[in-house]
Design brief:
CATH class: Alpha Beta
Distance between the termini: 34 Å
Shape: globular
Helix content: 10-25%
Largest sheet: 7 strands, mixed
Strand order of the largest sheet: 1-2-3-4-5-6-7
């Protein structure tokens, strides 16, 4: 965990690719892309179904460790219509039932608009483009506005570490600027894509 000051507030940048806002007991993350494994498999790419459950377990642990009362998702809860399979929906439903008192705010992302809204019984507060709290404006697409600091997702920022001889390592990162920040995608790669071979 790294603690920074942003727009007059203390934020904790967590290694699991989320931000915790202690003053409001709020966990903030972007780009879960639930259902992405199923969509990949339909396209002929081998991805194990366990990735969705693993991401939900990571999220449950973060919420309990930080004792968060509120979760803000900066878009792309779902990946695509192809990913909205019964197994995944049942996993999320069980996860939500385990956290009935958690307030969840979803700022819709481009993938959400092509997929579907979350089922009503999941009790998500869905907002179309932006949502404000304190000095922050929460958005899926990075932007700059007056009188607010923007927290966004969408671009999946990352750095590549390479030594010039072998495979490179792709590492997700946070990108903070003067007026906006871009969070890494919460969805985790559990495959060889974490290590991409590069030609010299």
């Amino acid at each position: 965990m790294v603690e920074i000051e942003c727009a007059g507030e203390k934020l904790q940048l967590l290694r699991d690719k989320a931000v915790f806002w202690p003053a409001t007991r709020t966990l903030i993350l972007a780009d879960l892309h639930l259902g992405k494994p199923a969509a990949f498999r339909k396209a002929g790419i081998a991805v194990p179904e366990m990735t969705t459950d693993a991401d939900l377990q990571r999220l449950r642990l973060l919420l309990r460790t930080t004792e968060s009362h509120r979760l803000i998702i900066l878009g792309d809860l779902f990946h695509s219509l192809d990913g909205l399979q019964p197994v995944m929906l049942d996993q999320v439903r069980a996860w939500r039932e385990d956290l009935p008192d958690l307030q969840i705010i979803l700022v819709l992302g481009n993938h959400d608009r092509k997929a579907a809204p979350p089922p009503l019984e999941w009790n998500f507060e869905v907002v179309d483009e932006t949502w404000n709290s304190g000095p922050f404006l929460f958005s899926h697409v990075p932007m700059e506005v007056e009188n607010a600091y923007v927290l966004a997702g969408h671009l999946h920022p990352a750095i590549f570490l390479r030594d010039g001889y072998g495979p490179s390592i792709r590492a997700a990162c946070f990108c903070f600027g003067k007026r906006r920040a871009i969070l890494p995608a919460f969805w985790k790669l559990y495959r060889h894509e974490q290590y991409r071979s590069r030609k010299r």
